[in-house]
């Protein structure tokens, strides 16, 4: 049985942070007086109360250590409680969302998915819009911290390849956060500011620019308009493309220059493949739109690049209703939801690194077929990938696909058609956001779905965000024994 | 560079064999006084001539000792030449089929897939119908032999698990016990064909369609003599016979040999069998229940139709009692994923195969335990034997390549004009050698005739890839393969 007290203690702090964040939209609303502030005040107080209670009730005496099991439990519990708290303003405020919808919106925000049940965003109260962007932004912070500190220790999905070189030896959570976490947060904040500036220059209003800066660096995808980026001009779109690409890249590489004195980012094979994948699919769809659908060349390039980057980095912005680009485009967008960004970024999906390992393994198998007695090594970034890493990558991919299949079948049971279910399931697991089809495609919302479907999708988003196995391991009887 | 002569010799034998097989529909047509017999006679002549030429020109003295690379080439060349020879009667016939159509139909036959471009089957001359069934039957038999003699020795996608003995040289292995097993399996195959013919006949089919359906049931093929497939008889008894036949055809054939030798425990304890039947039962119930709840039909017919569809899709047969292409929602999702699962290794079914999922499952189970106890030493096992990392990697590599081929194929199908659901279900279906897709345009009642030629070429390629377990074809494209 894992020791639950330190877990609750840390969870308390997380709730406090989130409650503090609620004060921002509240103050905004007090200035603009759109009547949302009581909801945020009430939610913040609830969060602060529960958080303080958890902290005081479980304060450990002296130093405490998180063992593997507690780390698993903390990861899940931390995300779950934050999602619950984040849902309160949607339920209490003028939106009056039902439990399923409010939690869906909050989960979608914190997991940086970007699927929404709200429509009429252009006229929605500013406080709500800011809160959604904040959820994206904080979710991005959360996943970077989780990816840097927790997942490598938990050995989920081959993440042990990414134990930071400098802190290779330490298994403890706290030193890792203090060593690496702050640098990464600094970079994250800095990029947000840059993006804000860029979007301002491109002609967005300060508020819209801030919201979009936050939701593009976190690859979240909440927008302040129903048309998403379709409402804004060329400049804003290209700035967002840049922001999404940065958001989907491995963050630790950005701090490498001053931590290690060389530009690791230029030599990282994952980044290289990430950019090549994006370029390939952008050009493919550009060509399709130009040659088959008679778009102008620049127009095709602009809309294809934007939407491809939005889906590959699992952001979920859109500028066009790409659902109407025909069967080929739909299939490409569906498949891209399974790719995702780089490890250690805010992007979701299976991630480029794992595909590199899979391809390397296929190459090995094919060579082995020709030379049955040969010895071949799978390598990543010029390092040999050992057996253990390979196995965890493979089981990750397997868990991912099985969850996808299970979720799609479950969604059809709520009465959805096959295309909606398959694409919703893929979009939720990959934290992309919009699916395909008239209901949930770009431009649609998840509002018409039944409550059961919303609960299922909320589960799917969390499952995808926490790399599936984090969940599954808690379902094994061994986890709770001893 | 490889010595290509043995490969040409074997292709020659395949062509000659098919030429001999063409004599059967020729005789049938001649007996029915149908002028179509000339088509078969001509096709037989062409392929026999070509085959004998190949054999004569490339014959080598002494025993043929094949290298691994030659085995790969040979498997691919064998299937390709069968497809080409098999398409001759379609091309020469008066059915006005284009090259793409004829090739598609023949590939669909020899890979035991069962997608068709022919409409109005009910009025076709008996020779053509017989030829389609024969192609599937021979294709199924060929696959059985290959999956015992060739694939295990080539270690394709974890098939080395089914290696029967481990002698030093390839030739020894091929000539040993494996040949005996292969012969036994073919006997079982033949006996079941006869049994199914009798059962179909007893259930109310006339003799000719009974034989043809028996051939395409046991091979998991799915060609029928009617446009409405099995459903056109509207007899529950026939549905049940077909259902039973499909379940048998997707199960490992070796269990029947073991039953014959009274090794009961070994036969019933077959590791794939339990998962296969379990999964099958589960999806049968799911679809049966769905039919019961949404179609408002009585429980027994609902279960019958549900079970039939599940078995037909899982084993990659593609028979239909009703148009499941026009469904949407739950059954489409279930059937779509089920088509990826496929039947057991050592059967005539296609798909990923049950044993690969089992290997995947045990590896994942071990992985989960290892997450909690990072230093524990655990080894995944299959059939109570540890699975070494080579097998594991080849299984997983196979699964990945399969999924990847599916993704690329569906994109290409989308590019040539299919809509989202049609493209992904047709791609999954062709790779699994199932046949029909899960939409109205590609479903079991639609056929692929109205689709553009590009779709047919792509699907033909996919069927061959799926049947040859992808890697067999893929290695030919490694530059290393052709170097020495």
Structure in words:
- The complex is a heterodimer of chains A (482) and B (484).
- Chain A is mainly α.
- Helix content of chain A is 66%, strand content 1%.
- Chain A contains 19 helices and 2 strands.
- In chain A, helix 8 (234-247) packs parallel to helix 11 and helix 10 (269-291) packs across helix 11.
- The longest helix of chain A is centred in the first third of the chain and has 29 residues, at 126-154.
- Chain A is globular, with a radius of gyration of 22 Å.
- Residues 164-171 of chain A have low confidence and may be disordered.
- Chain B has 484 residues and is mainly α.
- Chain B has a domain at 1-96.
- Chain B is 66% helix and 1% strand.
- Chain B has helices at residues 5-31, 37-58, 68-92, 99-110, 126-149, 151-154, 170-175, 177-203, 207-218, 236-250, 254-260, 264-268, 271-295, 299-314, 330-341, 354-372, 389-415, 420-431, 453-467, 471-474, 479-482; strands at 381-382, 385-386.
- In chain B, strands 1-2 form a two-stranded antiparallel ribbon.
- Chain B starts with a helix and ends with a helix.
- Classes of the chains: A mainly alpha (482), B mainly alpha (484).
- At the A-B interface, helix 3, helix 12, helix 13, helix 14 and helix 15 of A face helix 3, helix 15, helix 16, helix 17 and helix 18 of B.
